């Protein structure tokens, strides 16, 4: 059973639209993260949350907004989508911020 | 900004061979170094981590860290076809500034043929 659920697995969007990527973790962790993996770049850190509070934001654009409605949820809202946003977005979690990160299977986003 | 370089880019070995993967990092204040395994279409999975200079062994995996040279290596003994995957080196920030951020390298593609 996957302990970190990401939905949807695949997503196709048109330029300028808005999408929400869903992440739920059932590991009982208090820290959650978003990472992005695109074709020519290594896996990149985007956000970290601890106890539902933003700890670090490494995204340059305000078009990316994490949303934490419950302690085991960290969704990612992306507005005004661009083709460059095409990537696989991974959600991860850990117990505290110094321990092992566990990753979900990712949401593969294609922006046309 | 932390940089993580991995070599080789890809590696093909016969089953049973010893595999050696390399990783260099730029920040001497980096806290821990992690190795992750990623199969196609899956998320990365943590294999082993090291903080102190020296080596650490877990099963068929051994990791060596040399902080003076900013270098870490992962060795896989008796490689199996199921070890075929991308291996990612990741570095966490120094103590006091740790927000859970990991900086990853591009990875090494390993293929173990039967």
What this model shows, in words?
Chain A has 112 residues and is mostly beta strands. Helix content of chain A is 0%, strand content 51%. Chain A has no helices and 11 strands. In chain A, the strands form 2 sheets. In chain A, strands 2, 4, 5, 6, 9, 10 and 11 form a 7-stranded mixed sheet that branches. In chain A, strands 1-3-8-7 form a 4-stranded antiparallel sheet, with no helix packed on it. In chain A, strand 5 (44-50) and strand 6 (53-57) form a beta hairpin. Chain A starts with a strand and ends with a strand. By secondary structure, chain B is mostly beta strands. Helix content of chain B is 0%, strand content 54%. Chain B has strands at residues 4-7, 10-14, 19-25, 33-38, 45-50, 54-58, 61-66, 71-76, 85-92, 102-104, 108-113. In chain B, strands 2, 4, 5, 9, 10 and 11 form a 6-stranded mixed sheet that branches. Chain B has a 5-stranded antiparallel sheet with strand order 1-3-8-7-6, with no helix packed on it. Chain A binds chain B through residues 4, 31, 33, 42-45, 48, 50, 55-56, 58, 90, 92, 94, 97-98, 100-106, and chain B through 4, 31-32, 34, 41-46, 49, 88, 90, 92, 98-107.
